Amino acid sequence: MQRGEELYFAQHYCNTFLITAFLSSYSFWMGYLMPTNRLIYYIRKHVYILGYHIDGKEALPPEWIPIEEHWLFDHLIKQY
């Protein structure tokens, strides 16, 4: 799929959306353009860029649901 097709698909066919790279502008717009009644999750990370702290919870809309990175590691990744 081309990017425009992916955006269209997300808006019209996806019930939920999981953002794995919260600093990606493409992921942001895909989530932002989805209908407001859809659930949007993101992996909350604490990133430091050039000495500045960026927290996904502060950078993304408040109605988007964070999944704590340490929880994801402890409950999913560590098991495998």
Automatic annotation (TrEMBL):
Keyword field: Membrane, Transmembrane, Transmembrane helix
Annotated TM spans: 16-35
Name this polypeptide is given: Innexin
Species the sequence originates in: Meloidogyne hapla (Root-knot nematode worm)
Lineage: Eukaryota, Metazoa, Ecdysozoa, Nematoda, Chromadorea
